[in-house]
Model the fold of this input.
Amino acid sequence: MQYKPNKRYTEAFRLEAVRRSIETPGTLAQLAVDLDINIGLLHRWRRIYLSDNNMLVASL
Done:
């Protein structure tokens, strides 16, 4: 089996994914498929960026 390196996502991509998860109707699972990312990754980004003590929420 061939080694597949982990993808790296930019901060802008992560913020846009979280913003879309808030604003667009539909399920997180469908959004994850549309963005070609794992649903667990999207949940993790939402938990990080939407936490009360994180200043990045203001940039959404």
